[in-house]
Amino acid sequence: MRNRKKFYQLFLYALAVCSFVLLGAGFTMAVDALIRPSKSNITGQLAVQTDAPPATDSMLLGLGDSLTRGIGDSNGQGYFGLVKQKLHAKHNRLSAINLSVSGQTSTQLAEQVKKTRTKRLIQQARWVVMTIGGNDLFRSTDRLQQLNPKQIEQARIRYERNLRAILSDVKDANPHTTVFLFGLYNPFGDVNIQGANEHVLKWNESITQIAQSFNGVVVIPTFDLFQLSPGQYLYRDHFHPNGDGYQRMADRLLQIISDQPGEGKNSQ
Fold first, then answer.
1. Locate the SGNH hydrolase-type esterase domain: which residues (predicted)?
2. Could you tell me where the beta strands, DSSP code E, fall in 33-125?
3. Residue 226 and residue 233 in contact, taking contact as beta carbons nearer than 8 Å
4. Residue pLDDT, tens place only, 31-44
5. Which three-class secondary structure string do you get for 168-227?
6. Separation of alpha carbons 151 and 106, rounded Å
7. Residues 145-155: tens digit of each pLDDT
8. CATH homologous superfamily for 38-257?
9. What is the pLDDT at residue 41?
10. For residue 4, which phi and psi values (nearest 5 degrees)?
């Protein structure tokens, strides 16, 4: 009887340990999937969202990286979801499709916009919203704590070439769509990484200059939104915005959209 009781206690202890290990492993996998989504997940998202867009009077199309995907927002909305909600209140037949991919670089986006399905959606889009460039910039250097100016400059030149190609393909597919391109911000403003602000500002100059060479491409600045108090508006990974940060981005974008004919406060 005593041996049976001891065996039962050991069994419960082993079961508890296994449960804890499995829970920890599941959490680790969830975080890893959030930061580095698998190719199969990405493919599945794109297939669902691009096969059969519903009949619509207006379409909002999202392109780019994890910022348009909304990573860091505990509500899963991101700026794209917040803008979609606001526009849907005015446009009953609004369609919103988000083709952004976490971790995407400008090289990958340049390839994506050439795909037949993506082009088909661009042709239907009234608005195209886009975040791209953060991964190009901050992955271009060996160490974030000590930025390599030569590597960053080489990446900027490559980014400029890709951005021109992206915007050219989008406008060729739909000359009438308005493209809203978010600028870059420095997520490490309170860490004091030497030269980070200067590099981000230089990349933003490139974004502005390239955008100005296209009709209907509007740059939405974000540098100032996170400049003075980055910790208040960034997710705990210290890279992506949190819910409040995305709200600031959405508010700024909606303010610009409202300047378009037929989109003002007094328009119905």
1. 63-248
2. 58-64, 94-98
3. yes
4. 333 334 433 333 33
5. HHHHHHCCCCEEEEECCCCCCCCCCCCCHHHHHHHHHHHHHHHHCCCCCEEEECCHHHHC
6. 16
7. 678 899 999 99
8. SGNH hydrolase (3.40.50.1110)
9. 35
10. -65, -40
